Each structure stands twice: as structure tokens, then as C-alpha cells.
Amino acid sequence: MSGRMLLPVLVCLALVAGFLLWGNSRAWTSWERAVIEKSDSVMYVCVMPEDSVFLRRPSADLGPRELRSKELKTLLDKMRRTLTDPSQDGVGIAAPQLGINRRIILVMRYDKPGQPIEPYLNIRVDSLLGTPVPGPEGCLSLPPYRGMVRRAPRVQISYLRLDGTPVTEQVEGYSAVIFQHECDHLDGILYIDRADTVYVNENWAAERKGFDYSRPEWW
Ligand code: NI
User: Which residue in 11, 104, 159, 199 has the most C-beta neighbors within 10 A?
Assistant: First the structure.
């Protein structure tokens, strides 16, 4: 091989290596960066039907670079503050509800001591186990409604931890219901699609009287 050929060959090898390392990941889009950076610590929560463009779209996985990014840390911090804020006070939240179509959810683990709120990345429900049981559900994106939904009492889920470790586990009880509800969000599915009945929750309606549903100016 002549010396003149060496440089183009090295450039090609670098491009191939770069593609193998990063080719499968989709970098944060400029919209996603804007939402992460410009949102207040309590983020705007998408509601139906105005924000169906986010709530009805399937979400993408995070790539290796996004998993290590400061944007993800900021997003998870703001998601947690939003979920626990008295104005929302939920038991789980999914990134598409905040305008970010990525497979990221937070779930309050009722089945663990202290009921910690934990993040789950690139999560999927592998299997629904047991006979479905009806129970009441609500959604921060569908105020002030509630619905009766039949859900599996036990699920097997696969996801990545914050450090990128892949995990497969089985969860049961109310936590299993939350995982099914939040993972549905990642596929553009809302509980009203599965509900036997949907009704107005009068308490929630009273609580939300005068609530500001307007989007941030930059949205
Ligand atoms: Ni929801």
C-alpha cells in the first residue's frame, strides 16, 4: 500500500468505527434539548387533546451517548420534581408527557420499603402475567378523568439502570399496574384506550379549578 493511500484508508476506518459506536443512537434533537434546558424545575405536563402530537407518538430508545449525557440527568431531575410537585402529585410519569418522545419513565415503587421513585430507561414490558384485574386509573395528561382498566397483576419488565446495566425483573401488585400504564405512554397508548368506563373525578375537578394549563411561551 502506498503512503498516499494510507490517509484515506485511516479516515474510512475512523468513520466505520464511529458508526459502529454511535450509529444506532439518535442524538438529542434540538426540540428535546430546548425542553430539557428551558423547562422550569416543575415541567409543563402535556394534556389531551392539545398535545396529542407527543402523547400519541411512539418513543425512541436512548443511545449510549444520551445515556451518559448531562441532558439526561437534568431531565430526570426535572421529571422527579414535576411528579412530586403538589400540583401533580402522581405515582408515575413518562417522558412523552413532558414533550420528550424517549423511552424514559419514573415509577413510585409501592412494593419497596420507603416507596422510592425510580427511573427506568429504554424500558419494555416483556410479558403480562396472571388474570387481568379491574382497577381505577387516572393520568396527569387526562384531567379530571378516571377510568376502570383491567391490568395484569404481574409483569416482567426489561430496562437499563442509570449506569447502563440491563435488568430484567418481575413486579406485582399496584406497581405492576403503574409500569403497564407508563409503558403504554411510550407506545402512544393512553388508559382511556383500554378502559371499560371513563368518568369525571369530581375531587380532581375541584382541586384543579383555576389550574393554569397554558403551555410555556417558548413551547
Ligand atoms: Ni399517564
Answer: 104
